[in-house]
Write a structure and sequence with these properties.
8-stranded antiparallel sheet; about 45% strand; alpha+beta; Carbon monoxide dehydrogenase subunit G; single chain; START-like_dom_sf
Length: about 130
């Protein structure tokens, strides 16, 4: 299952956005209001839970300075990645697209598609406003 947000233009340089995203503590600022728990476990991992959902641990998988950050589920039970692609537009603006890519059976994909789509949209909207 692949979900991608609309690209958002952010009035900050690609470096500023990349630095913001690579500091995992900042993800708490991007989370929906329905967040129940957020905890940075170490410099490469954080845990979060939304109301009514299980806890999810995300870990840094790969990063390309100023252009991409890939986070992935720390658990093999729910294999997915969350990617932020950053494209430079000018010295003081960039475009960011978030994408979710997960391997789920058809039943699971049907159940989580709307909540994940909403979650991704919220992350994108909140990133635009930070």
């Amino acid at each position: 299952m692949f979900i991608e947000t609309q690209k958002k233009v952010i009035a900050k340089s690609d470096k500023e956005v990349f630095d913001f995203l690579t500091n995992l503590e900042n993800f708490e600022k991007l989370m929906p209001k329905t967040i129940d728990k957020f905890e940075v476990l170490n410099k490469d991992r954080f845990l979060f839970a939304l109301k009514g959902m299980p806890e999810i641990v995300l870990e840094r998988k790969k990063e390309t300075p100023n252009s991409q950050l890939i986070l992935g589920a720390a658990s093999e039970k729910l294999p997915f990645t969350l990617t932020a692609d950053i494209k430079t537009l000018s010295e003081n603006s960039c475009e960011v697209a978030l994408s979710f890519d997960g391997q789920f059976n058809a039943m699971m994909a049907m159940m989580i598609k709307n909540p994940i789509t909403n979650f991704m949209g919220t992350l994108s909207e909140n990133l635009e406003n930070v």
